[in-house]
Amino acid sequence: MATPPKIPVILSEVEGPGVASRDASTTTKMGAPSLQSKGGKATNPSRTVFLKTIQAALLAVALCFSLGAGNASIRYNDLSHRMMCTCSCAQLLGECNHVGCPASGPMLNELSAAISTGATDKQILASFAAKYGVTVLAAPPTSGFSLVAWIAPFAVFAAALLGTILLVRHWSVGRTQPVQVSDPAMDALREKIRHETEASGL
Amino acid sequence: MATLGSFALLIALALAAYNLLAGALALRLIATGQPARISPERLADTARRAGIAGFYAVTVAAFALVYSVFTNDFSITYILQHSNRALPGPYKFAALWSGQEGSLLLWAWLLGTYGFVLRLTHKTDVKLYAYAGTILAGVQVFFLSVVNFAAPPFSLLKGAIPDDGNGLNPLLQYPEMVIHPPMLYLGYVGFTVPFCFALGALMMRYPGERWIKVTRVWTMVTWLFLTCGIFLGMHWAYAVLGWGGYWGWDPVENASFMPWLTGTAFLHSVMMQERKGMMKSWNVWLIFATFLLTLLGTLLTRAGLVSSVHAFAQSSIGSWFYIFMLIVLAVCIFTYVLQRSHLKSDQHLESLVSRESSFLFNNLVLLVACFVILWGTLFPILSEYVQGSKVTVGAPFYNRVAIPIGLFLLFLTGVGPLLPWRATSLRAIRRNFVVPSIALWGTAIVCMAVGDWPWKNGAFDPGNFYALIGFSLSAAVFAAILSEFLRGGAVIARQTKRNLFYGIWLLTRRNTRRYGGYIIHIGVVIVVVGLCGSAFNRSEERELALHGTLPIGPYVLECVGFTQDSNLNYNSEYALLDVYKNGKKLFQMSPEKRVYLASQQPQTMVAIHSVPGWDLYVVYEGTNPDTGQPIIKAFLNPLVGWIWAGVAFIVWGTFIALVPSLSPATAALRVPATRAVPTEPVFKGGD
Fold first, then answer.
1. Which of residues 93-122 of A touch B (CB under 8 A)?
2. Which residue, of A31, A37, B370, B606, has the fewest CB within 10 Å?
């Protein structure tokens, strides 16, 4: 019988949001002080919630690529999903369910041991890359030529967005009258249609 | 049968070649008006008939292969490698596409079928169809050449013929595998038809936008097939591969997704051309790109350029595809350069804040998404070329790069319908955006209140953050679409003095394309909600002794037995698990592991219990050799069922969009005579 892959330390992985009550209390803690302004003057609660949510969203975007997970089980789960299994099953290490996989069990043991030594995420990933080759990393490194992999999509997106905006602005500024001869009856009809459509929301 | 099949393929190639040459000659004669001994129209008709006959020839070849599978003709190498005597009947069909040669024959047959329909309906527009049919014949010549000379499916075995075959890949022995590949191929191959119409219309400088209408129907049908194919593939991966997920950003998955993105972009931008005479060059290139991407996807997965869990059919046919792609690209560029004056836009955009501009940005985002996926798929090759070593571009890369782009696209899906054509006022924007904005912020607050907080144990969790954004945007888009239906339905209900539902029904019937499109968008929203659920997946793994338990979420799984079974095709062992909730037994699940006798390959058979809130997904992973006890892994995957439900909406919406709208005359019959039709704010056409 083939040996199945094993998760040696953590049999339970909870990838979810955690306990609802904790999150609810977090919400309350964050929300409560903001109901009053500095001088104790009452502010509009909906406006405060709105502003706080905007701030949270912006902060989250800023931290999106910089923060790592906090505790061991989350780190284990996170790191096992940032590396590939080397048994050529082409699956993430944390998801390899390849029956009889000779690689994922020892690698997960190694990961667990590395986390318990207190090594940082970066050090653990570097040690795995040194041992198994850079292909063990599930995403390109953010250094050297591989950095291009990360930059190019956003650069292309930004360039395309900017180009499109400039093009549309150019068209709208340099727009001339339509070439076809103006028909007052048609113009009136178009205006009526436009007016009625906008008025009825259609 | 091998001789018949090989002969039929040769005949099919000869007929396709005649179709191409005679068709091209006839069209040349018609275009130049040169005198000829034979009437060009008659020559073009013989070419068309040759195309029809070619379909019959490929059908005979496909039948010969299927017949050989069913009669266990192991003298044919392909049958020996992909079938065995004990293989159940439905899976014998699957043998047709389980390997390189068979799947290329399927491709050629589907192409022949599309060509058959196209050539039979030529009276719609004889000249345009003649161009399209001739170009299609060129594509057929390529694929038939490949199956005749590079990957022949009827190669005979040298030496003694074994008594039994090697069997079908266990991964393919699943009911959906009888539907998923043909559906995907129908989508892939189908994009050849809009490509042929676009290229043909450009070559002949087709006047007006009518070719767009013809192409749109073909594109929508093809797009629907590809959509169903992709989602069937996702469901197959979910139910068979046993890793609890449905999309792994594998190169083969990416290869099917890229033409879907450009095809979707085309279906949106084509509305600009129909209504405003804009984006003509863009649309032509979108279709060209879509066809080229189907070829590139095939090249990537079959030529061994990238490693993939699906790359079952790697071989040396890559060079054939390289050459063909270069030829296609050269023809496209040459034709475009020659005829580009024909594609001059009639109008330009007037405002950044308008429906036209939202279509433009929608196209931009779809194209960027396509670029990202292509970039990620090809980057390992580029990396190897530049720095001498490959890097892996897996799910973490796509999740970080593609998800934000996808969310932006979802945002545009909601914004687009709220903007009127040409330009709008700030007041109108404010009025239209009130309800979606309330839905967005309301959902965000509710989600955070129930636990979808972007921080977990003091650390930022991108999964939760994206889920929060996804849920909120989905609510906003749904509100925007719903308000469109309600607003329009209410106007008609008032005018017809009927109820709101009748108003919505008539509204949809009067502009099936627009409101069918909205239903597709609702489907997309439902799919996104399902995808967001993956941020909250949980899993538990445990060795289970008899009466051992495994708690997960609200359930407790109790092992009540392990047993074995066998038949001619495979041996299996499975667990019997009673599932309890709040101490009450609800149902029993039996995850299974099989070992197929012919191939001696193991395969898990997942047990899934699906409810609207989540899927309980149980995998029998095998037995621990030290203890002899089975290992069970259970997943609780929230909202997965929503993904499949969303697809049903997409299919429904596409069918509605394909139905012709009620003509104004017919529509007038449905309202009281006193209600003059011109006063109604709903007009036929548009999106």
1. 95-97, 99-100
2. A37
